[in-house]
What does this fold into?
Amino acid sequence: MRFLGGLPAWVTAIVVFFPVTSSTAPGVVEGTASTTGTRTAAGEENFPPPTGDPRIIRAGARLTTVFDGGCVLTADAAADREGNVFFTDLTPTDRCRDARSHPETGVIFRYNAADRHTTVFRSPSGQANGLDFDTDGNLVVAESADYGGRRVTRTDMRTGKSVMLAGQYQGRPLNSPNGVSIDQRGRVYFTDPRYEGPETVDQPVEGVYRIDPDGSIHRIIVNVTKPNGVLVSPDQRTLYVTDFNTGILDAHRLTPEEQASVPPLQMTLWAYPLHADGTVGERRALVNYLPHFGADGLSADVDGNVYVAVRDTQGPGIRVYDPQGHELARIPTGNLLPTRAVFGTGHEANVLYVTAGKGLYRIVLNNRGYHLPAAEQGGTTTSAAARSAAVSGISWPPTAVVGVLRHPGHTPALAPAIDRTALDLPTRPPRAAISRSDRALVLRLAAENSTWGHRRVQGELARLGYQIAASTVWKILHQGGHRPVTTPDRTDVAAPAST
It folds into this structure.
């Protein structure tokens, strides 16, 4: 999603119906709160009727309110397998403050479809933006800038503990992770633009990245000017990316008049062929929205149709396209600018949830949504942890996990040591034979820390619970051509307490 700051001032006035105050306090919030839109009955707005393909649009269906207690902008949503819908409330620090003018720090809400109540799942959220669930039911979150995390995290929904999947690339902080999508092999794709925030922009481009199960991070797309939404197609063959370039890096430092004078630079829905190795091919433009504002978040149904949140101020809403870019349907959101639409699960698999304005809305459709298949013990779908172990013999490399965050409501500084119980790292005794997993682990750690000798590498592995003999580490580094390589009997610099 993108912030309001890049839109003309008159558009912002439409979206924010009331003066900005503190968002809803932690606790239970009724799903039919009434502060948005024109009422026709309790809990119902006068949204325009959807139009289009009857295989998608159900006769007589309209958007209805689930929740509208956000501060300024609900940004993204994702549904778990229990029927809960999680959605983010971005709280720009120049607009969302409490009674004493303290800036808010973002919220992830949880809507329970069974009792129709919305509660705070996590705050502070690290300015959580994009959400997705992996095959193991873990919540993957893209945390943005503006005093947010500027990272991608993964939360174990059973324990509430989180690990950091990505916070830097090539030794520099990410810009502002925005959209996120996961493929069936457990690889995480995320976009990294910048719309708001006082932090420095440290990356040379606003790119699209892939996090592999072994923890390695790859920049795979650099030819999108400001990537926003991202989606892996149900057949795993296409990576959709929205280019929402307002021409603005930090709306905080522009006056409303300056913002209104900046025309949109690029508003395109791109489709990239997605190869089996996670790289992409030659892109094609599915939809060009210029001179209007364009596409934000994305999702798909089981037929492969793409549901796009279009922030065109002259006709905002969800537009449905087939994989060739032909428009099939429209679901108008009235005066509210949408950020994403996602399908529910279980008996609500044909219910589309829409984040727009300050709220969450729903509409019943005829098509069912696509979700990643669940991991099964002993089944054909391999869990992300098992895939990771098969690739490298370690769940997360030292550079990918810098600390364990305990949620909800607590984000400590980077921990000096890694919580092994949260990572489920196996402890193995030293062994004479050099396994492929040991070799890959040692070489990757050495490559990411090119000045380390064998004893420093071995010490870091021991701190993580991997008992590999120093002589074995030296042998692997020597065979792999790593420099500097110390001799087995030389005392090297001790590993640091933390990285």
